[in-house]
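Service request form, structural biology core

Requester: graduate student, group of Dr. S.
Request type: structure prediction, single chain
Budget code: on file
Notes: please return the result as structure tokens.

Sequence provided:
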Amino acid sequence: MSDSKAPSTHETRQRIVSAGTELFRRTGYTGTGMKQIAAAAGAPFGSIYHFFPGGKAQLGEEVIRTSGAVYLGLITALMTPYEDRVAATADAFTAAAGTLAELDFADPCPIATVAMEVAGTNEALRQATSEVFDSWVDHLAAYYTEGGIPEPAARETASSVIALLEGAFMLGRAARSTTPVLAAAKAAAAIVRAALAGE
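Core staff response, request fulfilled:
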């Protein structure tokens, strides 16, 4: 008789992805071993290769794409209630500053961490991070277009806002301070305001 409390294969796979996401975020892609991931997931070591026969690189790609979708959902949840695109942008950065502090200045985004480490050495992971960032820019550009910023200015604005946020996270981690993120909030709001004014 099977143990009804035993995790399903889907649950085990999800635990492995979640463990990989958390470890890549905290210790980086190269600093994380597969045994660490198995231990954190509470899964047999061999199960990782059952689900991810391509090993760490395949798991890394899954983490990037899964996390990318989650963060896109967060962006949507933060900004959708706002009609005012300037206020939405500034408040999203303020919320991000709070998240950074709550995480004790660990990188809140495993995608950026992996991108910084492997963009020049692993083409599959570089491509995955590029596609995730593009999806964020596409979504944000559409949101800005709906708010009155015409293309291609909406896409340029979205790209600048994402770049500001990711750069601010890096500076904030280094300084162990939310100041860079809050400063970037003002800069991002100014960029959106200027785009809405057609400047």
